[in-house]
Amino acid sequence: MENKFAIIGGDNRLVNLAKMLLEDGFEITTFALEKVPELQKFACSSLEETVAKSDIIVSSIPLSKDGTFVNAPLSNVKLSLEELHQKAKGKKMMAGKIPETIKQDETMEVYDFLEIEEYAILNAIATAEGAIQIAMEEYPKTLSGSNILVMGFGRIGKVLSKMLQGMGAKVFCEARKNEDLAYIQAYGYTPIHLKNLDENLGNFDIIFNNIPVLILDKKRLDLVKKEALIVDLASNPGGTDFEYAKQKEIKTIWALALPGKCAPISAAEYVRDTIYSIIERN
Amino acid sequence: MENKFAIIGGDNRLVNLAKMLLEDGFEITTFALEKVPELQKFACSSLEETVAKSDIIVSSIPLSKDGTFVNAPLSNVKLSLEELHQKAKGKKMMAGKIPETIKQDETMEVYDFLEIEEYAILNAIATAEGAIQIAMEEYPKTLSGSNILVMGFGRIGKVLSKMLQGMGAKVFCEARKNEDLAYIQAYGYTPIHLKNLDENLGNFDIIFNNIPVLILDKKRLDLVKKEALIVDLASNPGGTDFEYAKQKEIKTIWALALPGKCAPISAAEYVRDTIYSIIERN
Amino acid sequence: MENKFAIIGGDNRLVNLAKMLLEDGFEITTFALEKVPELQKFACSSLEETVAKSDIIVSSIPLSKDGTFVNAPLSNVKLSLEELHQKAKGKKMMAGKIPETIKQDETMEVYDFLEIEEYAILNAIATAEGAIQIAMEEYPKTLSGSNILVMGFGRIGKVLSKMLQGMGAKVFCEARKNEDLAYIQAYGYTPIHLKNLDENLGNFDIIFNNIPVLILDKKRLDLVKKEALIVDLASNPGGTDFEYAKQKEIKTIWALALPGKCAPISAAEYVRDTIYSIIERN
Amino acid sequence: MENKFAIIGGDNRLVNLAKMLLEDGFEITTFALEKVPELQKFACSSLEETVAKSDIIVSSIPLSKDGTFVNAPLSNVKLSLEELHQKAKGKKMMAGKIPETIKQDETMEVYDFLEIEEYAILNAIATAEGAIQIAMEEYPKTLSGSNILVMGFGRIGKVLSKMLQGMGAKVFCEARKNEDLAYIQAYGYTPIHLKNLDENLGNFDIIFNNIPVLILDKKRLDLVKKEALIVDLASNPGGTDFEYAKQKEIKTIWALALPGKCAPISAAEYVRDTIYSIIERN
Questions:
Q1: Measuring CA to CA, how many Å separate C182 from each of B124, B166, C156, C191, D175?
Q2: Which of B49, B111, D96, D199 is the 20 to 30 A CA-CA neighbour of D42?
């Protein structure tokens, strides 16, 4: 048996992935995706069967939202993580945010997409585009010519800054590490050291935040222009005091899971490409 | 009397313009904008009064949609072009798509925004951003890495190509004139001569059209990828056989008047800046 | 007879052109290029013979430097414009800066490269790169991060600004026309209206001039930083008071004919491509 | 005593640094720089005196070229590393490529510029520009429109790729790690995995190498275009079989120490900025 895939649970992204694998000539079976008509003929009636017919199990990103059941919005099946784990023993498994108990199962070969740098960078492309789309929808001026601050110069910050510059915005990047500030300068953005952030905050028309701590707190929000737009990309609990921003009538969008929403086909391609990279390395 | 403005009719763009003129210290009166509460105190009860109190009349872009009445969506007043013309005699007047009879009135100094190159270029920025926003909303992949065709290398084509390249797309530009093709090469896009268009059409993920003739006809639509997105920016009647595209299930968006929709404040700023340029020249 | 070329006089650019035409399968003869060993076997002993064997005469850019003789630095032949004209009657002729007497000869079909927009734009690419090379060689800091002024937003100004921005420079463009200033803004450079030039001149590290009048006169040079570099690309007499700049010890390079010097093969390709465009149009 | 600098040995870069420190109001003394007239009045007659009057010793990058004596091309003094070490005990010292014996001296606070990421990134800007300057000087076509390969996606590769793209080149980046390939895609370059390098090598007009192992060996050089230009930026022994390249008449430039050569003032500013960062952190 060679690279037969079991697609278990997941959202549209996994549906698209399934179709792409078929197009590339792979055999697939599916489980907990019974609401998707096009995948009907690949559906197995039991988890056992799905697993038995495959050598690679691909499941949801994240694998679970509640810590107990597999994330399967296109199914009525309630599949527990525990059951999946038991049935998947001895197999390769790929999904997102996989619990430690599964990761450490030595009978299995487990790959967590969210820990694979390649996947994270590809997702940053779609996240950056989604963030720009939101800014375009919500901000009543053009990005071109606007003063835009990008806070955090990680993967998303890097790609987002490049795109904003390409749109004609004046791009300022906040960072703390000297090496990041040096890269920011090298790429032609204006570096803003965290310690100088406050004195500059009043200049920005749009602020994108990627820092997952409360950086835009009350004190800083008091310094932000009233007409500014904040797009917070930081995962829960975000980097903005949303309540206070609302109170001050600063328009603030907390934007999560953008790749699946804004570029669902690309998001599936990133999963596919990462799977192929893993396979090839082995 | 020096640079007192009468704002007559028009949409949100003229409302924003009115506020900007006030902010810059100019005196204004308004007419046919009575649905806008913030402008109430500048409203005149008659056209005569408005005109009498001003030396520059600014009206809608376009001045009329039906050729008979002034375009005044924020008013219940039915003001005929003829009446406006009679009352405005002897004044400076600025609006969009002004009829020849008014333009040729030698008692007046008439400026048509749509014939002012500066205004057209500024609008191209907002149009290009609006077009990109639509593509992001409608296309299920990222622009980054996509093969994108821009047809027509006029003002919008130039700015749009630059932004798409800045977003990481692979940009192809269709043109007919050798000088345009030379610029396209100079700017780092791939030039496609109109005569070679057909053989390349199947490669594009997204097609933006700025050419105001039926260029994407049935024969060419047959060559376009089924998954492609067409964003047609050409004014009435557009450059696409929309019926046939629909029949072929090629997603097609006919996008007009983007600056006012996607960047209303910028759109008003362009009007303001153009007005100031005219004033300064005189 | 169909597209047989007579290459008459000219410098390295025409030598490279000759080789390219041969590679593309065309027949050529040469005259007044006898110092080029590789072209020996295509040489004709007389102008008559060269002309008789060809239907398109390609000669030097510019055709003459002194107004009397054909520009032929790779030859000992002294060929007068008058003689060339008499012998070329009835033929197609392509060269640069062709005198009116030849252009108006109705027995001939005459194309002046320097009047063909396509050629001028392609040359602007090589000129812009050459200008950047000179700036890199002469300026002791990186272009990245420097404040650079481009004066004149014609063909060279447009391409040069784009490249400088791409290198990470902060690009300011001087222009007079509102439409140029609008494009400058659209492309993400900082527009400087000529009337505001003086108050900004002290900020620039490097100044590129494309304006063919004395714009950097004594008064303005007094405003330029002592450490600044001026690269003047304007044809004779240039746009800088070179004497005064020298006196003030402001490093100034007057850079002409860059395509042939900095990118001789590209320069020949531009001639070739322009020739092919002319042929194709006919 | 607070931030008094002893500048000991070094080349033009340290001379420029000395001037910048003076401009910023710092006190300096110098030693082993006696050939520089402008620094005469800061010169000390003995190393002891220089050290005694300072709290931070700044020396050459690299500190030594032969492993025995301090690199001091602007001096006749033969100062051994050993002597400098003995005299500098108890002080802060900053230089490049400092021997382990000094680094591990616990009485001292030692900073090696070449191990400071910020410094390395800033230097990458000047190196990238220098590499582009060389390519412009040596390659007979424009970079714009050329197919250019950048091998190695470290600091220099990243900055160089961005600049080349900004110049209008078609940029291909070779890398091995999937995360690098993902970034390459995100930035809009064409990724080339090392394993696919050979089949693509024949397409490139210019090849920049940053990989410090023999990657362009005989076998690969056989695949390179004869007209191609190779610019090897890898430190000794370089990444190209230079002998074989010469034999094959492939033009190859081995370009080292570019910041000091191509942008001496910027190179000194990078040293200065790095020193200030170190001081500020303490």
A1: 10, 19, 17, 8, 41
A2: D96
Mark yes or no for CB contact C178/B125 under 8 Å: no
Separation in Å, CA D114 to CA B104, D97, D212, D270? 73, 6, 16, 12
Strand residues in C114-225 grouped as ranges (E):
147-151, 170-175, 190-193, 206-209
Q: Please state, in angstroms and as integers, the Cα–Cα distance from residue B263 to each residue in A93, A178, A258, D3, following that order.
A: 47, 36, 22, 52
CB distance A260 to A13 below 8 Å: yes
Both tokens of D246, joined, read 């010469």
Contacts of B142 in chain A (CB under 8 A): 125-126, 129, 263, 266
In chain A, residues with a C-beta closer than 8 Å to the C-beta of D176 are: none
Q: Count CA within 13 A, CB hemisphere, residue C61.
A: 26
- For D172-180, which contacts have Cβ atoms below 8 Å and span 24 or more sequence positions? D172/D147, D172/D148, D172/D200, D172/D203, D172/D204, D173/D149, D174/D149, D174/D150, D178/A116, D178/A117, D178/A118, D178/A277, D179/A117, D179/A118, D179/A121, D180/D153
Shortest Cα distance from D186 to chain B (angstroms)? 7
Cβ–Cβ < 8 Å for A71, A65: yes
pLDDT in tens, D10-51: 999 999 999 999 999 999 999 999 999 999 999 999 999 999
* CA separation, residue A182 to residues B208, D117, D157 (Å): 38, 9, 15
Give all domains of chain A, ordered by start, each with its CATH number. 5-115 (3.40.50.720), 120-260 (3.40.50.720)
Question: How far is it, in rounded angstroms, from Cα B208 to Cα D246?
Answer: 49
pLDDT averaged over every residue in chain B: 95
Q: A124: alpha, beta or left, given left = phi > 0 and alpha = psi -120 to 50? A: alpha
Helices (H) and strands (E) in chain B, counts: 12, 11
- Cα–Cα distance for residue pair C182/C177, rounded to 1 Å: 9
Nearest chain D residue (CA) to C159? D167
Sorted by sequence, the CB contacts under 8 Å of residue C136 that are 6+ apart come out as C143, D129, D130, D132, D133, D136, D262
Average pLDDT score, chain D? 95
- Element spanning A205, H or E: none
Residue A150: Cβ within 10 Å count: 33
- What pTM did the predictor assign? 0.93
pLDDT 10s digits, C220-229: 999 999 999 9
* Residue B145 touches partner D, C-beta closer than 8 Å: yes
Q: Are A210 and A174 in contact (CB under 8 A)?
A: no
| Single-letter amino acid code for the residue at A18 | A
DSSP result, C215-231: -B-HHHHTTS-TT-EEE
Look at B125 and C186 and tell me if their CB atoms are within 8 Å.
Answer: yes
Contact D136 C129 (CB under 8 A): yes
User: Pick from D166, D243, D241: which is nearest to D209 by CA?
Assistant: D241
In this prediction, residue C245 has a pLDDT band, given cuts at 50, 70 and 90, of very high
Q: Indicate the average pLDDT of chain A.
A: 95
Query: Residue B6: which H helix or E strand, with range?
Result: strand B5-8
Structure confidence by residue, pLDDT tens digits, C177-190: 999 999 999 999 99
Residue of D125, D134, D142 to mutate, testing the C interface (most C Cβ within 10 Å of its Cβ)? D142
**In the predicted model, is pLDDT for residue A1 greater than 70?**
no
Nearest CA-CA distance, residue D82 and chain A, Å: 32
SS3 string of B150-199? EECCCHHHHHHHHHHHHCCCEEEEEECCHHHHHHHHHCCCEEEEHHHHHH
